[in-house]
Every structure is written in C-alpha cells, then in structure tokens.
Amino acid sequence: MTRTANRGRLTVTWLVAAAALALAGPAGPARAADGAAPPPMTDGFGLTRADPTVGGPTDFTLTVTTPEVAGKHHIKIILPSGYYDDPGRRYPVLYFLHGSPDDPAQQNYPALRASDSMITVIPDGGARGWYANWLDQKTRLGAQNWENFHLKQVIPFIDANLRTVATRKARAVAGVSMGGFGALHYAQVRPDLFSQTASLSGDIDLSARSMDLRLAVVASVTDALGAVCGSSSGVCDPANSPYQPGVDSDALFGSPYPVFNADRRWNEVDPAAHMDKLAGVGVSVYVGNGGGSPVDPEFWLEGAAGHVKESMDKLGMPYHYVDYGDGSGWGAQCNGGHNAGCWEQDLRDLIPRLERAFAS
Q1: Residue 18 in contact with residue 233, Cβ under 8 Å?
Q2: How far apart are CA 344 and CA 167, in angstroms?
Q3: CA geometry: angle at 11 spanning 8 and 307, to 5°?
Q4: pTM (2 decimals)?
Q5: Edge to edge, what strands does the sheet with 93-97 contain?
Q6: Rounded Cα gap, residues 108 and 253, in angstroms
C-alpha cells in the first residue's frame, strides 16, 4: 500500500498521537546595568514590559503585553558572550520560532547559545498561534495578531534596544514544527526583512494534498480530543490540554475544506505553494521520517518537506535540504523523530551556515 493511501486512513492516528531601521540606528545599551544583569530595555512599538526580566546578562527573558495579542508574552534573548566587551560592535539577528505548544523560556538548545557572532531572539508564538493574524479576532482567545506582533513590533523593538545590524542581510528567521511554518511564512510575506529562512520539521505544506497536516492545525485550534501533540515537547495531558479553550475550526484561516474554493486562505498561506516569493532568500529545510512510524508526526512532515523541495526544484532555486531519515547518521541524539534531539543537530548544522552567510 502506498504512503498516499496510508495517509487517508491514518489521519485519525496522527490527530490522536500527534494531535526598517538604518545600519547606524540607535546604539542600544553598551553594558548591563551592574555587570550581572540583562541590559535595560525600553518600551516601544506597542510593547510594554509586564513583569521583571528573568535571567543573566546574556540569556534572559522579557515579559511583554501588546494590543495585537491578548495576554502576557515571553521574549527570550540570547546575546553573544562578548556582547559587552566592544560597545561599538553590532550583530546580526536570528529570530527563532518555537513549536506548539511550547514557550520561548523552554527553548534551551545548546546550539542556540554557541554563537559569539549573532543575537538570537525567541518571541512567543502561543500554544497554537500559528504565526498568523487570525481571521476571527472575536473568539474567547481575544486578539490573535501574531504576525503583526512579531514583524511590526518585536523586530523594531529589538533593533531599538540592542546593538543589531538592522538590515535584511543581517536578519534570519528559523523555527521548529509550527515555527517552521512561521519561518517560511514570514520570509514569504516580508522577504524585505530576512535574507535567510529555515524550517526544522515544519508544517510547510498546508495544501489540500496534505489534508492530514491541515486537520492537525485545526485540531490545535479546536482542542480536538483535548490533546493534539504535534509539538516540540511531544507530551500532552488530555486533562490539562494546552489548547484550551477550543474555538471554531474556521477561526485561524477560515474553512479548511477544499469545496468551492472555501479553503482559499489556507492556500494563500501555504508555504509550498509560494516558494517563488523566496527568490534571493537563503532557504534551509530539515526533516526526518519518524523511523517510518505514522504515529510520529515526522512521518507526515517528510512528505510536506518533499513537496517544498519539488517546488524549489521546479523554480531552479538554490537551497539546503537535509532529510536525515531515521536519524542514524544525524548526531548521537537523533532517532529521526519529531523531537529536540534531532532539532539540536539541525541547529548545529544551521547556525555555522548562518554565521558564514552573515559574514559574507
């Protein structure tokens, strides 16, 4: 039986188991206030700090509020170890987007702290925000303009408060799982902001041919079965679902069903269908096969990554593509599954490549 046939039969299995500032802009603070604290950060661009900053001078987490998204939101920032040594030096920035239902504070990949030549910023994407401005802003969740939050507020806030190189050339966006979708989506809607983008096990084909992935997204919105775990953690407790409260299935991108073009908004944001928008952007895609098990989300995401590769091949685009299969040749901690062990190895490959691109 073909994998295509299996997909139709195993959708339920998936749901249950997986279920612009100038270069010479504001210099920013040169040194942490007392040498052991994070640098001071000034409110602006619609962001207001809500709680004390947590962490040390080079690895800290802010809590902010914004009219664009209801609630409080973490922004984790990782500075190069030598950030305070040379007050005149500026740095490129990697925006790293987490998966569902994670939080920036949980993104503790050693590879993200290894670079001494760039800043890493991890903004909150919500348990199931999907890095988008939702169609329905009147659900019980309140305002859900995640795209506005990140692209119109977080980026200029970071450029105003830290010593960044505030240019497209010096800015990248990458993400895991839900964040992989966000990374390609953001680079497609704002290629003027990013010179590099990367998907690590991303939901990067939301077309009708990948209906299983669409339904997984819908399940996170509706809190289907109380536990849809296509996430970075891979663990959900149905009694304490991170996807509560559930809202209408059409709240995110409208109807997901391909009937009379009702799913047009899904097609508009489908990364695989719009790879032409990434002309001139460096693209990296990483994926495994879940060890061949349809219970592992990676099994389905491998097909999505393959569709993106096909699109780039047809366009004659350059790209960096890694399908590490069962993970046997991809680091000591990777088993080919949808998990942090594989993503750490992805980042060990990606970050030096970003550093070289920024330095070129």
Answers
A1: no
A2: 27
A3: 70
A4: 0.89
A5: 48-55, 59-66, 69-78, 119-123, 93-97, 171-176, 196-200, 282-287, 320-323
A6: 31
